[in-house]
Amino acid sequence: MAGTEQTITVLNEDMAFNIDLWEKVKLTHPIALEEWAECFIHEIEAELEIRETLTNREMWKKRDKNFLLRLISDDENGYANQRDKDHGKRPRVHLAMAFVTQMAECESTLIIEYLRETLSVQAREAGSTRSVYDNVQDEIAQESIRLESRPSDGVNPSLRKRGNGLIHEAAKNGRCAILQKLSLLTAENVNCVNNVGETALHLAAEFEHIKDVEILLRAGAQLKVCQPCVVLQFFTFSTC
Question: Average of pLDDT values for 31-38?
């Protein structure tokens, strides 16, 4: 009987956290959450997907099951609603970071383990940077192609998928301290690159988030030449 009551208590606490998480994100990002909910037949299905992910460790490692990994996916594992039918499944990294921000406030051991595993899976999938001295000319050439090329299919380059991960999004918005607080930043995941070869450090420098640059460097971020002008200008400015 005691075991049954304990199980019911855990389930009730889990449901309460799930509802609380949903409502908090709804307050901060109502439009983004509504657009994601439209990817399901009923809104409750989105809430259940969150709950199933958090309570099933096997799902943490699967890009087609883990709701955070699906939110940042730009391939078949992502989500799509009726508005996306012309462009296919698209990443919702901003919304994913909103969930991470709210989960970080909980400071639950289970949640921290979940976030750590999620970032680890993403790091293994994305690949990491090489030393700044490795293939520098190749990196500069790739950056030139990215900036100068124009797509032949007529698609606006700004609409193309950049492939940012959670740490990229945190760096872009000056929120790396949230991940640092939970000891989630490692040399493995801070050096992941997006689809255009950028690391989180590049984005922190580009958007002039000095504290985030410092956090990433302490976590093991490498100075990789991908956007040499942006990084060089930032460090020149910050050391003046």
Answer: 95
